[in-house]
Amino acid sequence: ASTIDDIRVTGQTEVAIQVDWKNPQAEVDYFRLTHTDPSGQEEELNVQRSQEARTKHTIVGLYPGTEYQISVQSIKGNTGGKASFATGVTDIDAPTKLVTTKVTEDTATVSWNKVQAEIEGYMLSYTSAEGSSSDIFVGRDSTSYRLVGLRPGVLHTVYIWAFSGDKVSGKSSTEAETGLQSSTPKVPKLFSL
């Protein structure tokens, strides 16, 4: 009777996974909640039974973009009930500190801090009053990218996000205003002496 069924993942962030499960009929002292990362590192914690029909708990301090095996079992005295299992995956963190480092008439270079999650790469796009670019793939080890072929004298908003499979992070953005085209350079006159 102390078997827990239907542990489920009800939400997640980059560093947390929220789970809940149905409280068993039988008396329990507490629940033992365990989460295991892909390398097999396991952490246990004790959760008090809630007064509601289900007990909720948010597991914090997790690593972004990582799949965790989660189990919960009821503990009464020194006896553990049958465990119930679920799998949860934290969100991929977004690139941080996206800044424009260099701008010319038709190029803009942006740089960012790499994400913590294991990812396949980044996607980058930009928009201006004229419309938006298609998504540009950038390798996962990159921390900067040079956009070329931009229109002069235009304010561009640049977006970057990380992805792995069909999971994507939130987007970071920065602005880059291209320079105006300079007129033809003036040729200094040669004065004959």
UniProtKB/TrEMBL annotation:
Q: Specify the protein name.
A: Fibronectin type-III domain-containing protein
Gene3D superfamilies linked to this entry: Immunoglobulins
Which PANTHER family does the record match to this protein? TENASCIN, TENASCIN N
Pfam families membership: fn3
Top-rank lineage group of the source organism: Eukaryota
Q: Which UniProt keywords apply?
A: Repeat
**Which InterPro entries did the record assign?**
ECM_Regulatory_Proteins, FN3_dom, FN3_sf, Ig-like_fold
In this chain the Fibronectin type-III domain maps to: 3-93, 94-183
User: Per the UniProt entry, what species is this protein from, by scientific name?
Assistant: Ilyodon furcidens (goldbreast splitfin)
Signal peptide residues on this chain, from the entry's feature table: none
Q: Which SUPFAM superfamilies match?
A: Fibronectin type III
